Amino acid sequence: MLRNLFLGSNNFTSIPSTLTRLDGIVFLELSSNSLNGSLPTDIGNWKSVTNLNLSDNQFSGAIPNSIADLMHLTHLSLSGNMLQGSIPASFDELISLEYLDLSRNNLSGMIPKSLEKLQNLKHFNRIIWKLLEPIIYGNEDLCGPSRLQVPPCKTDPSKSANLLKYILPAIGSVILVSIVVIFLLRSRNTKTELPIQENLPLLPEWRRISYHDLAQATGGFSDSNLLGVGSFGSVYKGTLSTGMTIAVKVFHVNQDRASKSFDIECEVLRNIRHRNLVKIISSCSNVEFKALVLEFMSNGSLEKWLYSHNHFLNALQRLNIVIDIALALEYLHHGHTLPVVHCDIKPNNILLDTDMIAHLGDFGIAKLLGEEDSTIQTKTLATIGYMSPEYGSEGIVSTKGDVYSFGVLVMETFTRKKPTDDMFGEDMSLKRWVKESLPSSLVDVVDSELLNTREREGLAAKDCILSILQLSLECSAEVAEERIDMEEVVARLKKIKTMYLRGPEQE
């Protein structure tokens, strides 16, 4: 019996009627085609489906109520279509639903209160705005109560006037008090919700960008706009007609695994959102061309800052960068239901914005772990020198592998030595070099420029770097089970930063 069907990124224009008769299908991927017309009314026949992705097609009309018959559905994406009408109230019957994306459609009307009954969805998204963001975005005519941060629904003016005529005299004082309370609450909420707002997409709405738009933005993908070349693609700097500066990652579609890498990045990046992850703005995909449009990082990569003679990072800047990446990994590993393993932590994949805030990018070989999987196996190789022993020898992928790579990254950041440096070989590695030098010979391994400061600052930096390198060794333990997790890493790095800022005389 067919259970998994992957037909994404093709040129299909319709769903065959025979497909809806596959009542044993569990995972159905039909995204990025040219499917048009209404969603099939017998969509409810897929009784066993758990993951349904119909995003980035040309479906129109209303969402059929029969979709509520998919009782086992955990992941549903209808984004990037032309669906109209309201969100069915019957969605509250999808009791297993964890991820819902209805963005970039033409939906209208009130957001049904029944969505709040979906406990798994609410838990998965942690807070109400993150719950509704992939539903609201690009559906400008959706409305609801103000606490959902959406436009209010319009009411009949005559009814409102009659109602006010009877109640206004009686509750005038109450309204006055309420206005004051609401003003105070909104002021407070505005302050606390700013970090969430700054993660919203940078375009007016999520939309596909055409090949022509990208060619024009990058000067025909000219070498003068080339930012870098990776395993599966090239990255160009571009400027849209709106004036927005972007980074365009063009995948080498003729290369093995490049198209799969594109699909993986799309799947991962559309489901995650964090201030320390590179944000996806849009995409462009057809048989011959695939590209991701990403937020532009004006200060380039950590690699550039570590090894260019024209750049320098002090101890605090390096500490802030590793904390940023630790926070990103903590979110990927522990921040939602299905852990994401990045699999390729290295300086070239860490990008710095205008404020020198670090963002983790390049999810081309990332892996999503199932709910019951702590490890999976893969044949995809990561970067030599940063791979954990179990990944390199057996292809075993787990969050502990990312922890190992993070440990190596931290060592490199503070020693300015690559794990593949010529000084390392069979008898000596970066990790062994650091381990054998601590604590007595710390100055022999630390980037010498970090300690060439005033005496007091030098002492503070020395104590700080010693603690950081000791932590990096715990992260890169040979046995996966002996490595600490990223939640503990974040807590300890923040403590180290606090001690550094206090200075040595207050410790």
From TrEMBL:
Name of a matching Pfam family: PK_Tyr_Ser-Thr
Protein localization: Cell membrane; Membrane
EC number of this enzyme: 2.7.11.1
Predominant place of localization: membrane
Regions that span the bilayer: 163-185
Keywords: ATP-binding, Cell membrane, Glycoprotein, Kinase, Leucine-rich repeat, Membrane, Nucleotide-binding, Phosphoprotein, Receptor, Repeat, Serine/threonine-protein kinase, Signal, Transferase, Transmembrane, Transmembrane helix
Sequence ranges assigned to domain Protein kinase in this UniProt record: 221-501
PROSITE patterns linked: PROTEIN_KINASE_ATP, PROTEIN_KINASE_DOM, PROTEIN_KINASE_ST
InterPro entries linked to this entry: Kinase-like_dom_sf (IPR011009), Leu-rich_rpt (IPR001611), LRR_dom_sf (IPR032675), Plant_receptor-like_S/T_kinase (IPR051809), Prot_kinase_dom (IPR000719), Protein_kinase_ATP_BS (IPR017441), Ser-Thr/Tyr_kinase_cat_dom (IPR001245), Ser/Thr_kinase_AS (IPR008271)
Molecular function via GO: ATP binding; protein serine/threonine kinase activity
SUPFAM superfamilies: L domain-like (SSF52058), Protein kinase-like (PK-like) (SSF56112)
Reactions catalysed: L-threonyl-[protein] + ATP = O-phospho-L-threonyl-[protein] + ADP + H(+); L-seryl-[protein] + ATP = O-phospho-L-seryl-[protein] + ADP + H(+)
Positions that bind ATP: K249
Its membrane topology: Single-pass membrane protein; Single-pass type I membrane protein
Domain of life per record: Eukaryota
Any Gene Ontology CC annotation: plasma membrane
Family: Belongs to the RLP family.
Name listed for the protein in its UniProt record: non-specific serine/threonine protein kinase
Organism: Gossypium australe
